[in-house]
């Protein structure tokens, strides 16, 4: 099962820092913020580079959508509107950044650290989408 099965997902309103990231989700593109000054990639989007502190050299690059489980848990007792069991995972993207997301699978208890994942999307009512991941063969 997956979180929110049969219900609509909700997401925060974009701000000036996150707006480009959210806008890209309308095209099903996952962006990673990257600092031109030092090359550091980061997520979630921030107003400054977390490596060198630059305020002006932040840009965006498209993520491959490939990643692996860095840490995970299976939620057995969910909040209203969510259908357990489902997997919450810290995903390490091929670009090196960590992203907290869901792994959507019919076998949540089989998901483990090091498992290969690929990007998928869950639509939001306003046309944006949430990035989720599904198991992938290497």
TrEMBL record:
Signal peptide stretch: none
Pfam families per the UniProt record, alphabetical: OB_ChsH2_C (PF01796), zf-ChsH2 (PF12172)
Record InterPro entries: ChsH2_C (IPR002878), ChsH2_Znr (IPR022002), NA-bd_OB-fold (IPR012340), Thioester_dehydratase-like (IPR052513)
Sequence ranges assigned to domain ChsH2 C-terminal OB-fold in this UniProt record: 60-122
Domain ChsH2 rubredoxin-like zinc ribbon, chain residue ranges per copy: 22-54
Top-level taxonomic group: Bacteria
Name this protein carries in UniProt: Putative OB-fold protein
């Amino acid at each position: 099962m997956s979180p929110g099965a049969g219900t609509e997902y909700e997401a925060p309103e974009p701000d000036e820092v996150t707006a480009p990231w959210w806008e890209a989700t309308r095209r099903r593109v996952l962006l990673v913020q990257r600092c031109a000054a030092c090359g550091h990639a980061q997520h979630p989007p921030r107003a400054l580079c977390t490596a060198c502190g630059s305020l002006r050299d932040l840009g965006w690059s498209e993520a491959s959508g490939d990643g692996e489980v860095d840490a995970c848990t299976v939620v057995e007792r969910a909040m209203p509107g969510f259908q357990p069991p489902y997997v919450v995972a810290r995903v390490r993207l091929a670009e090196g950044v960590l992203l907290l997301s869901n792994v959507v699978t019919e076998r949540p208890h089989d998901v483990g650290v090091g498992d290969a994942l690929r990007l998928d999307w869950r639509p939001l009512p306003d046309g944006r989408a949430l990035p989720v991941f599904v198991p992938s063969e290497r």
